[in-house]
Specification:
The protein is α/β, with parallel strands linked by helices. Helix content is 25%, strand content 20%. Iron/sulfur cluster binds next to helix 7.
């Protein structure tokens, strides 16, 4: 097996790559590594994921930009899936990924047999919550353990001290109300299996309480006009606790969200990049970057189990649901001949004041004076899925265009 990163190097920031474009955004905004998957065999079957050609391009792009690429094979396979796993392991190993991320011990064995040179990271879906489990995977040859979210930093520190494997934890993103995806709600309601990566997230739906003898009289306890979100967890956010995380011996900080937008990937990656760098350099960092995180989510944040005071794990969002303060309008894919090429995500009108969010942090506002279609014909408005040109806009590739909607 080839060597993984040594444990004594700086902690790695691991960002989600739901498709090739999001991979490039994550790398541009400062990810040390990205995690991605093919069209099957990873949790999150609904994210767009990668064709074999896109995966090859994504891994090459990551490596060309000094980032690493981890490929997920973290479903819980049934017998009928085993041959597919073997084929994927053999094929993907030729693309030189930096690791496979695996949950199932059968899939682990297949990867060891068919791609002994590719390091293996044990997925959070394996639910490792103690150092004996970690050592078990270590003896089998895994090089990194992605711990369960249901742990305190104290427990994480003990596990890290008793294994030679690298330790990775989630620091940001959506949480399950169930034990990290071991949940049957989605299968029950719509036949989509969370443990095969196809969760429809029914925990985010609104519910009413029904007293057993009065089935036609649901209790009206609405916390929002849409109902009571009793199963919907707040999102994890550990941006204020980077020093404690690093002190606990963690080697990699992971951001959840392969189904989220390129905007989310860019903003969240940049905020954690800056916080990590600030921790190592002593520079205090820019509070605006942390504030940016609040502009990406319509749920409030929690520190989950990590600080120990919330053993129940989730704080229901309930009435905490709110709107994001900004709309993501477009992604700059290139700048050429003094024009920015923009993939439009939401309507942009001539005369709009937009903010350009750049990977290096030099954000600026500008007024859209002119909009052109791809044949340079003038437009009054650009619509979603259109590619347009913005004359005079100088910005780095993968910059994000957003518009303020309202303050929190
Ligand atoms: S329904 Fe919610 S809690 Fe259950 S697996 Fe899906 S996201 Fe997790």
């Amino acid at each position: 097996m080839s060597a993984d990163k040594p444990r004594d190097t700086r902690a790695e920031l691991v960002s989600p790559a739901g498709n090739l474009q999001k991979l490039k955004v994550a790398v541009a905004f400062g990810a040390d590594a990205v995690y991605l998957s093919g069209k099957s065999l990873s949790l999150r079957a609904q994210s767009e994921n990668f064709t074999p050609e896109q995966m090859a391009e994504g891994i090459v792009h990551a490596h060309a930009n000094a980032a690493r690429a981890f490929v997920l094979l973290n479903v819980f396979p049934h017998n009928e899936n085993l041959e597919q796993i073997r084929e994927q392991v053999s094929y993907i190993s030729k693309l030189k990924p930096d690791a496979f991320v695996i949950s199932d011990i059968g899939a682990f064995e297949i990867a060891r047999e068919n791609a002994p040179d590719v390091p293996i990271h044990i997925s959070t879906q394996a639910n490792v919550t103690n150092w004996r489990s970690a050592r078990f995977w270590e003896r089998l040859g895994a090089s990194r353990i992605i711990l369960a979210r249901e742990l305190t930093l104290k427990e994480i520190a003990e596990i890290a001290s008793r294994t030679t494997m690298q330790v990775e934890i989630f620091v940001h993103g959506a949480m399950c109300m169930a034990y990290s995806g071991r949940c049957f709600m989605s299968k029950h309601f719509v036949g989509r299996d969370a443990n095969l990566g196809d969760c429809a997230q029914p925990c985010r739906w609104a519910y009413k309480i029904v007293e057993e003898t009065r089935p036609h009289d649901p209790l009206d306890i609405e916390a929002t006009p849409k109902g009571t979100l009793i199963f919907s967890s707040r999102d994890l956010c550990m941006i204020d606790h980077i020093p404690e995380i690093l002190s606990s011996g963690v080697n990699a900080l992971k951001i959840e969200g392969r189904m989220k937008t390129a905007y989310y990937v860019g903003i969240v990656t940049r905020a954690y990049r800056q916080s990590l760098d600030a921790n190592y350099s002593g520079y205090e960092g820019d509070p605006a970057r942390v504030d940016d995180l609040r502009k990406t989510s319509n749920r409030d944040f929690t520190t989950g189990f990590y600080l120990g005071e919330m053993r129940a794990g989730l704080t229901p969002a309930g009435g905490a649901r709110r709107r994001s303060t900004h709309s993501f309008l477009g992604l700059i894919t290139a700048t050429e001949a003094n024009m920015a090429r923009v993939e439009v995500r939401a309507r942009i009108d001539r005369g709009h004041t937009l903010e350009c969010v750049q990977p290096d942090g030099n954000d600026f506002q500008f007024v859209v004076d002119s909009l052109l279609d791809e044949t340079t014909q003038p437009l009054e408005a650009a619509l979603p899925n259109q590619t347009v040109l913005l004359p005079g806009l100088k910005a780095a590739a993968f910059s994000l265009l957003r518009k303020e909607e309202r303050q929190l």
